[in-house]
Design a protein that fits this description.
Number of strands: 15
Strand order of the largest sheet: 8-7-6-5-4-3-2-1-15-14-13-12-11-10-9
Mean pLDDT: 87
Number of helices: 1
Order of helices and strands: HEEEEEEEEEEEEEEE
Strand content: over 45%
Shape: globular
């Protein structure tokens, strides 16, 4: 058994609420809006809108941010996506994104035997096991998958998840009890090139409140508003 699978198993033993997709945690959520910051300055937003229809739940995502360096556009992203869940299981995902004037897309469907996702994306076309997760920050179940699907292009990354500590996180005037995790993404297990993310997960609301990473600056996704149904 390889190292990152052992790490995931240990996390599941400590945090059993992560051991399966708890879509029902979001039944009372209307939308979650996150600010996108670069080097401490707000550059855009990421908003998830939840729509419930009997045994279906739709999650619409809107993202837009523009980061500049000395007047030059460093990163310019705008896009939309929609996820469709049936009885708590992801059955379809579609996205269209423009990144620095380049068009990206991902179209994903669950096959009939529910063992694989069929992906047609701008960076990858093929199949992946249905245990893989689309890498959106609203869904804490991404902490329980060893394969992450890019929501922008359909590309696949291997994931390692490390629990770091319990931490009190202050957002505005509010304090939250969180579990802090480190995520490492690689194209393959042996790859030396990697992406590192830090995630703060709220024990009470079961919502990811904060995500940070470094790439052409220090980036931060920070929950601004959580709106619940009346």
């Amino acid at each position: 058994m390889n190292k990152y699978k052992i790490i995931l198993i240990l996390i599941l033993l400590i945090y059993p609420f992560l051991s399966y997709s708890h879509i029902t945690h979001y039944n009372k959520i209307k939308f979650i809006e996150m600010d996108v910051l670069r080097n401490g300055k707000k550059v855009g937003f990421n908003k998830y809108i939840f729509i419930k229809k009997k045994d279906l739940m739709l999650v619409k995502n809107e993202i837009s941010f523009l980061a500049k360096f000395m007047g030059v556009k460093l990163m310019n992203i705008s896009g939309t996506s929609i996820e469709k869940y049936k009885n708590g299981e992801l059955v379809e995902f579609r996205s269209n994104t423009t990144q620095n004037k380049k068009k990206k897309f991902n179209s994903l469907v669950l096959d009939e035997d529910k063992k694989f996702y069929k992906i047609k994306g701008s960076s990858f076309t093929g199949k992946t096991p249905s245990t893989a997760m689309v890498g959106n920050w609203w869904n804490h179940s991404i902490l329980n998958s060893n394969i992450i699907i890019s929501p922008l292009s359909g590309s696949l990354k291997n994931q390692e998840v490390y629990f770091l500590s319990k931490e009190i996180l202050k957002i505005g005037k509010n304090y939250h009890d969180t579990n802090k995790f480190k995520i490492i993404l690689k194209k393959n297990i042996e790859d030396k090139k990697k992406e590192e993310f830090y995630v703060w997960f709220d024990d009470r609301s079961k919502i990811i409140l904060k995500v940070t990473y470094s790439k052409f600056g220090n980036w931060e996704y920070l929950v601004k508003t959580i709106k619940e149904l009346n």
